[in-house]
Amino acid sequence: MKRFILTSAFTAAIIAGTAGAAYASQYVAYEGQGFSGRSVVISACGVSNIPYHGSYKWYGDGQSGRMYNQPNGQGVAHFTLASDRNAEQRSPVGWKSIFIVC
User: Fold this and answer.
1) What confidence tens digit (pLDDT) does each residue in 22-36 have?
2) CB burial of residue 10 (10 Å; 0-12, 13-18, 19+)
3) Run of H or E including 9
4) Residues 6 or more apart in contact with residue 2 via CB below 8 angstroms
5) Which of 43, 50, 54, 84 lies 20 to 30 angstroms, CA to CA, from 96?
6) Domain ranges for the chain
7) Is 71 in a helix, a strand, or coil?
8) The pLDDT value given to residue 23
């Protein structure tokens, strides 16, 4: 009986965590132009450094993204990606970090 209860609680926690993550804005940074090469998805709240600068896609799903030309969100935000619109750029990007507002 205990095994069933623990398994059910664990499964419920995974489903709840996954459901919450499904509605987060995402910044996808690509190594190459035209969305090519390696990529990384950034969706965590707060500041994240951007490792690739070849191109990007933004999926606005509730949170806006403040873009910085310096690492670690230093300096003044250069641009803000909308919380309710998608965006993309096929050519190189100068942004070095993002602050996702949650």
Assistant:
1) 579 999 999 999 999
2) exposed
3) helix 2-21
4) none
5) 84
6) 24-100
7) helix
8) 76
